[in-house]
Write a structure and sequence with these properties.
By secondary structure, this protein is of the alpha/beta class. Helix content is about 45%, strand content about 10%.
């Protein structure tokens, strides 16, 4: 067994403070690259070593991968760490709701609506209230977005609409009616959306007896990326701590870049207001970036309105090279420069996979993508395709969902409309019949086939429904989930070949990959829940360059997708006024968030940082205004200029008295 001394070995004095922190509330302010994951992991291992049962430690994160990584690291120090109660806020909430369904008077398997299901339900409701495509009412996606924002920020609907989306202020009555109907729809069908899971957990903690039981179950709470908590997350953490909190929150206010989800750097400062006795621990020793690169990040941090007084110190042992601030003529010249430097770095020993191009929004990478394609530089666009965005996977998993829970109306609607000739109206009639006929709950086949008789061209829809029901029968039968999914997919081949004629073979591989993830799960229900809450397809965007088997590609990514990652060399192009800060940043709070986005970008590289500023936008020939952030960081760069800085020549003619033309229209 590892000793406490071995757990502390190799840590700096700041990290050791985190590991040795015990009773009470602790706020760990962890700068970029300061080893917060290591400190948090070892603290959990130390608690276990000192006798705390691993399952009594609640580790809350915002991604499944983060939780799995920390538990894996802790396991190497203390094998019992495998039993740490770790996961995302939503996954922990789902377990509490599912395993205590009787508390809410719910069926044993309550239906969980994922975000795309929610939009589908809002689409149906909005249509019932007279919404038509193209009219000036909120879209189903906007209804879902506004409702979720209000729930997670714990604000009134009208306050949220007028503050964030005042252009829809005229539609307040429409918002109110649609959201009221949405709540009723869920209540009538015992459905939970992702936000409801958190609300249920929060409500459980409010109950005197249930809240006490949960606090006793999890006497030690650790929260990673606390700056990304919204008001509902914070409420849960606060109630988990109670009057005698053993809560360790780790985060960095300078990396709070998810304002659109209701987060803010103030969350970190409010922790100290909530628990004034809380101890602050600063992690300031950076192991990632060279001193020259880190000076840029520190400069951005110092410019922020809300911040803790700190200065990150570099412990990088790599050779230090000054960051480059490169002025180029336009975006075409910028793309050429980036491609040249990428290949030069490769020649100098920095592999393509250790280089990245980071942008505030992907439309600012289009010239660089084109240059990479023309030079045959393999690249990938960062960001997995979310399950709700992969239609073929959603189709198949909805089939699995109705095999597990025949009350899942949203999934049935998608499954039935896969058949040729079955529309939303016809599918809804079948669903209503299934729900209202108890005998059908064992086998919906007769009802479905009656509705599908002679549907589709040449009876194709009827044949497809037979295939769908055959797959449903396989999935509804007890057995290992992977085996059932494989057999069901074979039954669905013809249906999907018709639905996705151009690329079904490629899409089939996606489904096979996702199905294989079911192997560790005891049953299909558990797998589907995990899939909905935690997974995304780990594949590149469709916009990818010529990747070869011999060479891993360079990454092109938004800053948001790059958070938590690092590379040897990072390029930040189009450092202009409408890119960073974004042209959509109109308030001071929004500009402050743009600073934090810049901070995240500037703290990703280990060895080389390039910021490129075109003077002209190639697409329109306009002079590109200087970013308002340039003055705060440019002194820390070595500045070079490529091409001629120029103002495009005007087409304006000198006005004279005889310059008049009458058009003969």
């Amino acid at each position: 067994m590892s000793s406490i001394a071995s757990i502390l070995e190799g840590l700096n004095h700041e990290q050791q403070q985190v590991v040795q922190a015990r009773e009470g509330a602790f706020l760990v302010v962890a700068g970029a690259g300061t080893g917060k994951t290591t400190a948090l992991t070892r603290r959990a291992a130390a608690l276990i070593k000192e006798g705390v049962p691993a399952s009594n430690i609640l580790l809350l994160t915002f991604t499944r991968a983060s939780a799995a990584e920390m538990i894996s690291r802790a396991k190497k120090l203390v094998p019992e760490a495998v039993d740490i109660s770790g996961g995302t806020f939503h996954s922990i909430a789902q377990r509490l709701v599912k395993e205590n369904a009787s508390v809410f008077r719910l069926p044993e398997r309550p239906t969980i609506l994922d975000p795309s299901d929610t939009i589908d339900v809002f689409r149906k409701i909005a249509k019932s209230h007279g919404r038509k495509g193209g009219d000036n009412t909120p879209t189903p996606g906007m209804l879902s977005k506004v409702h979720s924002f209000a729930v997670n920020t714990r604000r009134d609907l009208d306050d949220v609409v007028w503050d964030k989306w005042e252009e829809f202020g005229h539609a307040m009555d429409f918002f109110t009616k649609c959201i009221a109907d949405y709540k009723e729809y869920k209540r009538d069908r015992a459905m939970f959306d992702f936000d409801d899971l958190l609300l249920a957990w929060d409500r459980m903690l409010d109950h005197p007896a249930i809240g006490k039981a949960i606090r006793e179950r999890f006497p030690y709470v650790q929260v990673d990326e606390y700056q990304d908590c919204n008001a509902l997350n914070v409420s849960i953490v606060t109630k988990l701590g109670g009057d005698n909190p053993n809560v360790a929150a780790v985060g960095d206010p300078a990396q709070a870049i998810y304002g659109f989800r209701g987060t803010a750097p103030g969350t970190m400062f409010a922790f100290l207001e909530r628990w004034p006795q809380a101890k602050q621990i600063f992690l300031t020793i950076n192991y990632r970036s060279t001193p020259d690169i880190l000076s840029v990040g520190n400069a951005v941090d110092r410019s922020m309105r809300e911040r803790f007084p700190r200065e990150l110190k570099s412990m990088s042992k790599g050779s230090s090279e000054e960051p480059l601030f490169v002025t180029v003529a336009d975006e075409e010249q910028e793309a050429i420069y980036v491609a040249d430097k990428v290949l030069e770095n490769k020649s100098d020993g920095i592999a393509l996979a250790e280089q990245a191009v980071l942008v505030r929004s992907m439309n600012h990478a289009r010239f660089i993508e084109g240059e990479f394609l023309s030079r045959k530089i393999p690249y990938r666009v960062m960001g997995g395709i979310k399950l709700e965005e992969a239609k073929h996977i959603k189709d198949f998993m909805c089939l699995a969902r109705v095999a597990v829970n025949q009350h899942d109306e949203v999934a049935w609607l998608r499954v039935l409309t896969m058949a040729d000739g079955i529309g939303d109206g016809g599918a809804q009639k079948v669903i209503d019949a299934i729900r209202s006929t108890p005998l059908a709950m064992g086998d919906p086949g007769p009802i479905i086939m009656k509705a599908g008789r002679n549907k589709g061209k040449d009876g194709r829809g009827e044949h497809q429904l037979r295939d769908i029901l055959a797959a449903w029968q396989v999935l509804a039968t007890p057995g290992p989930p992977v085996e059932k999914l494989e057999k069901a997919l074979a039954h669905m081949d013809d249906v999907f070949q018709f639905r996705y004629p151009d690329d079904w073979k490629m899409r089939r591989r996606d489904i096979e990959t996702i199905s294989a993830m079911a192997a560790p799960h005891p049953d299909l229900d558990t797998f589907l829940t995990t899939l909905a809450l935690d997974y995304k397809i780990d594949k590149s965007s469709e916009k990818s360059g010529p990747v070869t088997e011999q060479e891993d590609p360079i990454t092109i990514s938004t800053v948001h997708s790059a958070k938590g990652l690092e590379w040897d060399a990072v390029f930040f192009p189009t450092f202009t006024a409408d890119h960073i800060p974004s042209r959509m940043a109109n308030t001071e709070d929004e500009v402050e968030e743009e600073k934090r986005i810049l901070y995240v970008a500037m703290t990703r590289p280990r060895k080389k940082l390039y910021v490129i500023r075109p003077t002209v936008t190639a697409a329109k020939g306009y002079f590109a205004q200087e970013s308002r952030f340039q003055s705060s960081i440019v002194q820390y760069f070595d500045r070079i200029q490529i091409g001629q800085k120029r103002q495009p020549a005007s087409f304006k003619l000198q006005e004279k008295d005889d310059y008049h033309i009458d058009m003969d229209w």
